[in-house]
Design a protein that fits this description.
Largest sheet: 2 strands, parallel
Structural class: mainly alpha
Strand content: under 5%
Helix content: 55-70%
Shape: elongated
Number of strands: 4
Length: 623
């Protein structure tokens, strides 16, 4: 009996000790998911778990997310699952807290036995970084670290599209190609959307050549391109200046072309100056029933007006009104300017009245076009009065000053500039106003006053531009002030302003007229050494020499151009023929035409030499 009681006491002690040890150990933490129901039985939208809201609220109000997350999980004996982390990162409350979202992402990966982040978490975090107001370098560094942290995670094609779309929005081309290679390594076939994401990212990152290669690969081995694909590649061609290739792709699309396709090619053609091509594409849009965006209609109207076809532009505007498309101020301004340049001032002013009837307020460009219209109609006084009426418009003042100068009323042009500078409030004179006044003075042969006016530009806060120097150089050389013209030329070069073709031609013409041919050639060569090629400078020099009767110097200039390889001999002959014809030396022009000068050779024993242009002035020479 005693032995049985001892055995029972030992068993009770063992049971009580095991019970006390079990009571002292903490239970295991539970993984909490993002949704309440994880089964596929329940239909309808899944209800998010309340743990998602608690975690987001904690991150929103926490100054130390890592410590607060640790305390939160210890208190409730939970661990955050990959699905819950991904759902929390999608919360709108974290959109303006990218640092807290990154801390949650890093902290979750450090949990014991945490499986791996889901791909949705990477996508959500990349979207959050793209929308965050972070410095670009910091944002890109965080995104690159995320992408490189994908590790051995498989990237299936459906999820690859979302990931590539996020990377493309941030312009991270290298990371985007990394994900593309990972998807290919996973054995997935890229979809049309995936190709479109890659193409869009390459085009937005200014890699049009790479985008075209991907497009060729897609047409050869991938799925059939859709309208979005074609639009992206058309944009790539247009950004690279290959408008013809973009138009060929547009024609290849056929009936699948939409308004974005047409708009992209029309914008490229307008930038290239092909206004007729813009009108042809617009007509094709109308024939196919494709709705033209308002800005496309504006480009077509402006292009037709620039080509001197304002009546066709007015027809386009009437068709816009018939379709219910609202016209803007730019459309009527283009029509006004087009009719003005066509010499129909009455119809141009009618466009202004129609513009006001439709409730559109004229802007600065419109007022400038009205002033230009009045000046072309021979009404510079009315143009000046219009500019005064709209005193806050420097464009209108510049047009009025230019109109007065072209009408030979230089004093009134300068007075209008002085009135503008003296007025308190309103527009201040800009470089265009000063340039117009200086051009008026130079036309009147008052280049010295124009140079003095340039000295006042700095006081008004204006910097002399290439147009300013071109006006002064041309005015000085026309006034036979070669030395002052060269001084202005030197100031232009010292200021780092690239000379225009008009300034170079005026300089070359003026120096040659003064007999300083070598100096003119040296100035042209110095321009070429700086990368500024003076187009037409030698032609102007030859014309000036022939017009001044300096035929010997003209012949030496032609020989020098051939010997130094400035122009091909046949081109030099053509320039010389035109210069002689314009100078009234038809006899020498005919002699040059029927000779071998410049293009033929003469043998002196075993030596073959080109027939020089200087032989043109030798009456007894055999040419």
């Amino acid at each position: 009996m005693r032995r049985a009681l001892a055995r029972a006491a030992a068993l009770y002690a063992r049971h009580s000790s095991s019970s006390s040890s079990a009571a002292g150990a903490a239970p295991a933490a539970e993984w909490v998911e993002a949704f309440m129901d994880l089964s596929d039985v329940a239909g309808g939208p899944r209800q998010p778990s309340p743990w998602v809201g608690r975690v987001v609220a904690l991150l929103r109000d926490s100054a130390d997310p890592d410590s607060d997350l640790d305390a939160f999980c210890r208190r409730f004996l939970v661990r955050l699952s990959p699905s819950l982390v991904a759902e929390a990162l999608r919360s709108p409350d974290l959109r303006d807290r990218p640092a807290a979202a990154l801390r949650l992402f890093d902290w979750a990966a450090r949990q014991p036995r945490f499986p791996r982040h889901r791909l949705a978490a990477y996508v959500s975090l990349l979207d959050l970084l793209a929308a965050a107001a972070l410095p670009p370098a910091e944002r890109d560094a965080a995104a690159r670290a995320l992408v490189r942290g994908l590790g051995p995670l498989a990237v299936p094609p459906p999820a690859c599209g979302a990931l590539m779309r996020s990377l493309g929005a941030m312009g991270l081309v290298e990371e985007l190609l990394f994900v593309w290679r990972r998807m290919k390594a996973s054995g997935g076939l890229p979809s049309v959307e995936t190709f479109n994401c890659l193409l869009t990212a390459l085009v937005n990152a200014s890699f049009p050549a790479a985008a075209r290669r991907v497009f060729d690969l897609m047409r050869r081995d991938g799925p059939a391109p859709d309208a979005v694909t074609y639009n992206v590649v058309i944009k790539a061609h247009c950004s690279a200046g290959e408008t013809a290739a973009a138009a060929a792709l547009l024609a290849e699309m056929g009936g699948a072309a939409d308004k974005i396709s047409y708009a992209t090619v029309i914008q490229a053609r307008y930038a290239d100056g092909d206004h007729g091509g813009c009108a042809a594409l617009y007509q094709e849009m109308e024939e196919r029933g494709v709705e033209a965006p308002p800005h496309v209609c504006t480009l077509v109207v402006a292009g037709l007006c620039r080509e001197g076809r304002p009546f066709e532009a007015a027809t386009v505007v009437r068709r816009m009104a018939a379709r219910g498309v609202r016209r803007n101020a730019a459309v009527y301004t283009a029509l006004l300017d087009g009719f003005s340049k066509a010499g129909d001032a009455a119809r141009a002013m009618e466009m202004l009245e129609r513009m006001r009837e439709e409730g559109l307020e004229p802007d600065q460009v419109t007022h400038g076009a009205v002033v230009g219209c009045l000046c072309r109609a021979g009404r510079p006084a009315e143009a000046a009065e219009w500019a005064r009426r709209w005193g806050g418009n420097a464009v209108a003042y510049a047009a009025a000053i230019d109109g007065l100068g072209k009408a030979g009323r230089a004093d009134e042009a300068v007075a209008l500039l002085e009135e503008m500078a003296a007025a308190r409030g309103g527009a201040r004179p800009d470089a265009a106003c000063f340039n117009a006044a200086m051009a008026a003075l130079c036309r009147a042969g008052r280049a010295a006053e124009a140079a003095a006016l340039r000295g006042r530009m700095a006081g008004e806060g204006c910097e002399a531009d290439a147009r300013t120097y071109a006006i002064l150089v041309e005015g000085m050389f026309k006034g036979r002030r070669a030395e002052e013209g060269m001084r202005v030329w030197g100031e232009m070069v010292a200021a780092g302003v690239a000379p225009t073709a008009a300034a170079a031609a005026a300089m070359a013409r003026g120096l040659c007229a003064a007999g300083k041919v070598e100096r003119a050639c040296r100035a042209v060569d110095e321009m070429a050494a700086r990368g500024a090629v003076a187009e037409g400078a030698y032609e102007e020099m030859m014309g000036a020499l022939c017009a001044a009767g300096r035929l010997a110097q003209a012949c030496r200039l032609a020989d020098g151009m051939v010997e130094r390889g400035r122009e091909v001999p046949a081109r030099v002959r053509t320039l010389f023929l035109n210069a002689l014809r314009k100078a009234g030396r038809a006899d020498l022009a005919m002699k040059l035409l029927h000779s071998r000068i410049g293009i033929g050779y003469r043998r002196l024993g075993s030596v073959k030499r080109r027939v020089k242009f200087q032989t043109l002035l030798q009456p007894s020479s055999t040419t």
